[in-house]
Queue: 3 jobs
Job 1
Amino acid sequence: MESDVEQETGSDQAISESPFDPNKISINIVPHTIGQVIDKLEYDEIKIPDYQRQADLWPQKQKSRFIESLMLNLPIPLFYFAEAEDGKWLVVDGLQRITTLRQFMLAEKQTDVRRLILSDMEFKTEFNGCSWESLPPAMQRRINTSQITINLIGKHTPVAVQHNIFSRINQGNSPLTPQEIRTALFQDYRIRFLKNLVSEKTTQGQAFIAATDNSISNHRQDDLDFATRFLAFYMQDATTYVPDMETFLTEATKNIPASAKRQELINENFLAAMQLAATLFGDKAFRKPSDNDRRNPINKSLFEALSTQLARLSFAERQTLIANKSNFIYEFNRLFEKKDFVTAISSGTAAKEKVIIRHKEINEIIKLNCHA
């Protein structure tokens, strides 16, 4: 399912006001053999990113030709990994090659791996139909001792820098989305917490799905991106926002609390915000008003501003806002007569002044109607 989400334009043009220090970049060149990489995979010292983008994209022929390149001692491209806090390696670039190695050399030991049988070989045609176990020992040794070069991003490299490196390296045919990069960087309780905010298996996730009328897909982690936007501006006031948006969201993900008590408070307020949005707007929550029966798509900037401002209300304030629903919706619709507000949720939405405008305007009409 594709997301019914309005495309943001020019949101990537906001210039970072706090560019990273290039002196903090730590990348080491690490010579390895294929055998050493296989050992790390076998003992779970290399983390395969947990994002929805299908990790197994290469066709059978391309996988077999990669194995054949190792048989022929041909040079292969660099691998990029990032060192996690626990010392394990995260795949930055080379995921398809890593997946191929797992399927060919570890299928016997790791039951979750689909076995690769060689086919369509160009030169080593005698090995068509072979599995790793059926290769002659001499050929197994040749593959295991094949030399590769790894660029390892040090674990002390600031997370914003790591995100930037991920973005620059992933420029292939199917580059990672910014959210997929964040998920690859934070494969721990932080991502589990974000997933619970939007999961159909949790109360707060069910409320999110209902408030958005199931319009935000988990394809390419669109739903996690929305959850991250909420969390970033819930934990930090919009007036303190410093561009660029991706750096801001990455830092927010890093700062997701480990405390179960703090997480529960966020869950409760997110749940309340989603339920309140559904009560106020019905199936038109987080969408621009329409002059006809045709419903507009979800607007990410509206979601960000509305959800965070609603989440900060007390129970009494929420009840008063519901009681004043008609006037609130009237004031909300009037916002779209203001050119500055419409621009702030439509174009160049990552600019600081536009972030501040949309949050300020939404906050004012909420306060006007929850204190009446």
Job 2
Amino acid sequence: MIVGLLCGAISVSATIHYVSPVGRDVIPGGTSWSSPWKTIQFAIDHSDPGDEVWVRIACVVIIKNNTYKIFHLQSSVCICTIGSQMKKEPKYNVPGLRAGIQISRLLCKSPKPLGLAELCAATDLSKHMVYRCLQTLLTEGMIIEVGDGPKYEPSLLSFHYNSKPVARMTITRAAQAPLYQLWEELNECCYLGVLNDNRILYLIHHASGRDIRSGGGRMGGRYLLHADGAGKILAANADKALQDRLIDEGFEKLTDKTIADRKSFLAEMDLVRKQGYAIDDEAYIKGIICFSAPVHDYSGKVAGAICCSVLTIHYTLEELEAKVGPRVLECAKRISLSMGWKG
């Protein structure tokens, strides 16, 4: 009787979702009164415009009429028709942050600077909220004031930060196949790293396939520049300001072969730039030696570095340079050429 009455009130093409206090918010579910969902919010989150949510009145439901319509059919059941403008409440919400993102997005999309009134009209945010967000973005250097009004537009600082992940993704894609091939040929630990503040960040890391292998390094790990083979490449080709920061920070001595003073560090940087590669001679971990080479981008700048690390029980330093070194250099060249480097 109830089903017949309800079906007459809905479109035959609508998908029906069922909600009851005895239900469970799981997928699959919500397909009948015998397997209903528990909360109306879960039903809304998994509905499309035009769908209908049948709700037992026993549920405590607070519904805003300007969000979706309610048709009370009898005391036991009501239908909520999901409209095209249905707003799904996010699980977590920071209104100020969301407002700042909205404003930043609008300014980036707009071909011309926008003023306070224009931003208020485009976002439905209060003038007070928009003004506070603009002042915060101005203070952080993410936008600038231009013209009368005033008007606002994104600064190049915003582009600078947003472009960094793109650059890292590009080098990761370019290095994926060549580095994997190098790892297959050598069966030794091979990795790609990029500069991340005053550390090297490993974006790709292939562990050695030997039964006895080194335990150093992992993808996503950050390591000291002055002791890591690839880190030396990045430090040597960075600006003087970074090298000065490293000197001011001091050099942690990890083994008896780790660089520990300013003079040795600068001499090593000069050597790395001159020879075009770097060696880690048990400077980070006793018993592990590494050969590293730079990866260049289209502008010729060093965008990252690749490295192969081996155990001293398998290679001498001379064997590392003679047998592993040329392959690492060739792999780095392949990656660089795919990134637009002219050679």
Job 3
Amino acid sequence: MPPTPADPRESHDTTRFDDLRDLKTGPPVNDEPGQQTSPGDRSGSNGRLWNGGDILGAIGLSVTASTVVLMAGLFSDSLQDASSEDSEIGTIAAAIVAMALSLAIARVTRLPFATTVNLLGLATVTNVAVHLVSDAGRSDLLGLPPSFIEAAILSGVPFGVAWLYVSRKRGRPLRDLGFIAPTSANAFLYATGAWLLALIGVGIWGALVTDIDTISPPDNATPVLEIAGGSLLVAWLLVGLWGPFVEEIFFRGFLLGGLRSRLGPWPAILLSSGVFAMFHIHPGLYVPTFLLGVAFGWVYLKTRSIWPSIYGHTLHNTLVIIAVWQDIG
């Protein structure tokens, strides 16, 4: 059968991102010299973009794997307390269920099973070791508070999951997650402007709901500073640098990048921002993180690079941490 001619409506200028309508199929990717593929290409078992099943699997695996890591740490704490037998049984049960779900998701979505198990095991064992060090009375590990290391591990789980689906399963290069130079010289100006607009929306929302405890934005920065032992630098490394890096890779590079070729740019931005908001758990954070997610999502599609959205996210978190540090200092 002769090959089907390409639809000329799906071609677009690969050097500019002047209109979000041009992003529906996403940028083409060169995997080999002289060869081009696009996010619309679904041929072959490897070298193709992640599909809807991968996206759902990654969201589920991020939740279940984080639960395994967290429950393992709590279980190691309960071993030090002879009076916590009931909580110990509950923790074990939760960890077993989460582990079973993680392995089931890996099987169903056809992840490389051994790599998935090894990565999950490494994160779990590392967190248990961190808890054991903390229970032994040490206030630091490699110069960092144990609680900081645990938070960094948990934050990094979605990043590891995205890597599994993109690199290990699909064989795609990291540039498919946005690790390319921005196509526009104004990329970081776009990020700053989008962040400021989102910040205005966050401020208006906060003023409207300030007297409604259930949906009023909570103070998340103070607990982070406590986790960091009161150190501004340590808090910034966790929330101002590491957090934006791993979150933008998962929610913009992976989630938004996978949705845009199927839903179009704005539905993909809105849906990925909704998932981004839900991952922040507290109802008071849903609207602020959704607005920020929309801003960073627009920046990602506008610039074709993950770096401007990481910059915008880092800018926001850094200023929040500094403001809270000054208030309590």
